[in-house]
Amino acid sequence: MQEQEIGWLETKAKEIRQLTIDSIGYLGVGHVGGSMSVVEVLTLLYYKRMNVDPDHPKKRDRDQLVLSKGHAGPTLYSILADKGFFPIEWLHTLNQGGTNLPSHCDRNRTPGIDMSTGSLGQGLSAAIGIALGNRLDHIDSTVYCIVGDGESNEGQIWEAAMAAVQFQVSNLIAFTDYNKMQIDGYMRDVMNIEDLTAKWVSFGWFVQRVNGHSFEEMDKAITRAQAEAYRPSMIVLDTIKGKGIFFAEGLLSNHNMPVDYEDAKEAIARLNGAGE
Amino acid sequence: MTEQQMQEMRDVYTQTLMQLAEKDKNIVLLEADLMRASGTKSFKETFPERTFNVGVAEANMVGVAAGLSATDKIPFANTFACFAARRTFDQFFISANYAGLNVKLVGTDPGVTAAYNGGTHMPFEDLGLMRNIPQLVVFEPCDPVSLQKLVVQGAYHKGCTYMRLHRRLAAILYEDDAEITLGKGCILKDGGDVTLMATGVVMVPEALKAAERLEQEGVSAAVIDMHTIKPLDAALVLQYAEKTGAIVTCENHQIYNGLGSAVAEVLAENRPTLMKRVGVNDEFGEVGTLEFLKERFGLTAENIYQQAMALLEAKNGRATH
Q: What ipTM was estimated for this complex?
């Protein structure tokens, strides 16, 4: 990856963070923590890796993304709006009655959303189904899935983990957003999922673990994952919950928190400062 | 009923799926380690690449089916009705129905047909659960002919469906050219004094037997196969409420939230009519033969007959006041 490209993606990630905290701040409450920890991976996928077309959001040969941790919707909405899937003004309608941008992803309401998610544990199974359907139709594309670390407490994730290997779903690349926190505290204190890498390896996946805020590391990992001919891939991302937002980063209470719009504006200004 | 007039429902189901799959490459099959019970082995042999056995993992099965339908596949997902309804309710609700997708979920061994598997495997509540899912089509064929026709219609209904399927032998009740339409009840026998509205392989034949006995007593009983529980054929319910003034519902299910409740809702809001519900009265299932369990829970022609007679007494009492 060229330094210029990394710089461009970093600037884009900053803009996505700003749009996202603006939309949550405008509303006054939201899933700040888990939205911020996935900014880099979603930016890399949508601006470099994925074959998607805002003018044809349902085109059959597109790459698809299942945001299994559906509560990170606000970050994905910022990206889809920025790419032109829908007007940027929609971002200020987040969670308002009648909106097309509900707190959890809804494929029937939002152009560019490939799967409805929000009841944790379900997205990876759906991603497998989409990947199998693409394989049956000889569609050469990749299905991406973002799983939460807290979500990995759910049994269905591990049912899906077995099935993806059994069915040799190599056109599936999953990520775990491993920010080490869940709603009630640190994962090690609530329900520990270590050794996460060893778990996925033992289920038969091609597993890599990288810094989830490093475009270079993630991009290399995706290239290696795409070379796998028979196995699904899990890329465990070490991330920081609330990353980049001064009043939320690393805070245990940041899963779903009230946000003062003035604080959001301050966060946007500080991100600009950091980017310069 | 002679052997020649009976067929294994699972054979008819599998043959129907295979006929559909030969013409339509989008038909796919999912199983959760009950392929032998569902009888779908021949589908797998003919269409191996379109068959996905997820092992003992029903929640994942429904999620994978939802994903497949997002790529325009038409997935039929089979498991025992107890697991289809109770265990995968959230997956079916959110990943399939809320997501606006197109999963054809099939629950086998409904109610007392779970027999030797006993109370843990005996769903008396699946219709109630499923009826609460918005826009879901819920149906239970009563014989091999209606099964074949309703599976084909369900496959091309746009949206999710839930079908209750008795896997084993069932008597043929319809002619091959019978007109059977999803969402429309079928009048198996007309009558003017009381209406027996039944659903499924266990109860429709019992209702027919009860009607015979009522005829012997001089009572003219209509029998309706209400194969589609949702959307309920409200027009037919009201037509027979008007015609007979007395309705007995018959279901291999709790009397709560299934066919009886659905009929009661229509009557209460539109045309209050005397009715009785034959079904399981707030009890869990238990183990035994099908015949034992039918007696145990009152799912018999005798009970339907008794309820109908009680209803007629009330109706006649009302008429004389």
A: 0.97
